[in-house]
Amino acid sequence: MSAKHQKRGEVSPVSEEYLETIYKLEEQTGFARTSDLVDQLKVAPGSITNTVESLEKQGLITHEPYRGVKLTDLGRGIALSVIRRHRLFERLLTDVLHLDWSRAHEAACRLEHGATKEVTERIEETLGHPDSCPHGNPIPTESGEISEEKSQLLDRLEEGERGVVAKIVEERRDILEYLSHLKIMPGATVEVEEKAQPDGPITVNVAGKSRVLSRALASVIRVQPEACDQPEKPLSELRDGMSGVVVSTRTGWKRGRGRGERRCSGFEKRLMDMGFTPGTRVAVVKSAPFRGPVEVLVRGSRLALGRGMAEKILVKVE
User: Fold this and answer.
1) For the domain 152-225, what is the CATH code?
2) pLDDT digits over 136-145, tens only?
3) How many angstroms separate the CA atoms of 107 and 128, rounded?
C-alpha cells in the first residue's frame, strides 16, 4: 500500500510513540536526532535505527544526514492524533479520576494507543472540550489543528518582571512533583527576584515565597508575561479571594468539527443556567490544587466547577 493511503490503524503503538516523540523534538529544535530519540525513548541505538528506517519507508518521516529526521505531513497528522488522545486522557485522569498531575503523563502513555475515535470524542465531550492538558500544553483538534498561545521561557524574564505560568513542557514525574511542591503550575503567578549570570540559578517569588530554580528547571517552564492591563482572564486563573465580572464564555465553537463551523453543544446554555451570564459578578472561594475543582460564589450560590468548565468563563478582574 502506498504511503498516501496509510491509515492510523495500520501504525503500531511503537511507531506511534516514535512519531509523537519526533514531533515534540522537532518543535524544540527543528529536527529529531538519533541521540535525542535514544534519550527520550530509552531504547538501544540499534532499535532506533531500525524503526526510523521503517518509518521512512512508510512515508511518515524524512531523514537528513547529520541533522536528523522530520515528520512528513502524514506522519505529523498521526503524531497529532496520538498527542490529542494522550492529553485528553491526562485531563480525564486528573479532572475526573483525581489522579495527581505528576502521575497522569505516565498513565496516559499506556492508554493513548488503544482509544478509538468514538471514545476520544466522548472523552472530549464529557470534559467540556478542554483547550489544554493539566500541564498547560494545547490539545489538538480532531482535524489536526493545534493552537499555541504565545509564551516565553521563564528565564527570559528580567528581574522584577512577573508572568503567569502557561505550561510545563517536560512531563517527567520527578519534575512535576517538585514543581507541585513549589506551587509552580499553570495559572500560577511568578516574579523574578534575582538572576545569576550568565547561566546561574534564578530566584523567583511564588505564592509569597522565594524559590531558587536551576536554569535547567526554568527551561521547561513557559510563561505569559503579565501586562499592566489584563481586563480578561479565565475564571480558572483567579486565586482564592479574587473576584471579577463575567465578560463571555468560550463555548460557542465546538472543537474538532471543521474550521469555521459553529455548533451549540449545550455547554454554553448550561453555564448560563448556572448564572454565568455577561455582567454577573463571581468570586473565587477556593481553587483546589493539581487542577482540581474551583469553588465560586455566583448570584448568592456556592458552586464547584470542574477546571475545564472554569477555563471557559472569561471575567474582568476587579
Assistant:
1) 2.30.30.90
2) 999 999 988 8
3) 21
Q: What is the pLDDT of residues 54-94, one digit of tens each?
A: 999 999 999 988 889 999 999 999 999 999 999 999 999 99
In this predicted model, what pLDDT tens digit does every residue of 247-264 receive, in sequence order?
877 654 343 444 444 444
Query: Which residue type is seen at 76?
Result: R
Assess whether the region 152-225 and the region 233-317 belong to the same CATH fold.
yes
The top-level CATH class assigned to 233-317 is mainly beta
The reply to whether the predicted model has a pTM over 0.70 is: no
Asked if residue 300 lies in contact with residue 229, where contact means CB atoms within 8 angstroms, the answer is no
Q: What's the CA gap between 314 and 216, in Å, rounded?
A: 34
Are the C-beta atoms of residues 78 and 8 closer than 8 Å to each other? yes
Phi, psi torsion values for 209, nearest 5 degrees: -125, 140
Q: Is the pLDDT of residue 6 over 60?
A: no
Cα 208 from Cα 183, distance rounded (Å): 11
Q: Where are the domains of the chain?
A: 6-130+138-147, 152-225, 233-317
